[in-house]
Amino acid sequence: MHTCRELYSNNISGPIPNDLGNLTNLVSLDLYLNGFSGPIPVTLGKLSKLRILRLNNNSLTGPIPMQLTNITSLQVL
């Protein structure tokens, strides 16, 4: 079982994949310092165990999805 995804500083571009929302055991998701663009997927709201979500230093647009407010374990955004 993987609980961390560290994909920071990899020059990844394009939208954040919706399928990341299926990794429901994730505790930490680090996507910062890339070239992600577009909105933050609402599917990330399914990551109920998530404590750390780092999306800074990308080219994301739009509001933070309300679904993320349902993640009561989230400590770092």
Automatic annotation (TrEMBL):
It is found in: Membrane. It comes from the Eukaryota. One of its GO terms (cellular component) is membrane. The keyword Methyltransferase does not apply. Keywords: Glycoprotein, Leucine-rich repeat, Membrane, Repeat, Signal. Transmembrane segments: none annotated. InterPro entries: Leu-rich_rpt, LRR_dom_sf. Its main location: membrane. Signal peptide: none annotated. PANTHER family: SOMATIC EMBRYOGENESIS RECEPTOR KINASE 1. This is Putative leucine-rich repeat domain, L domain-like protein.
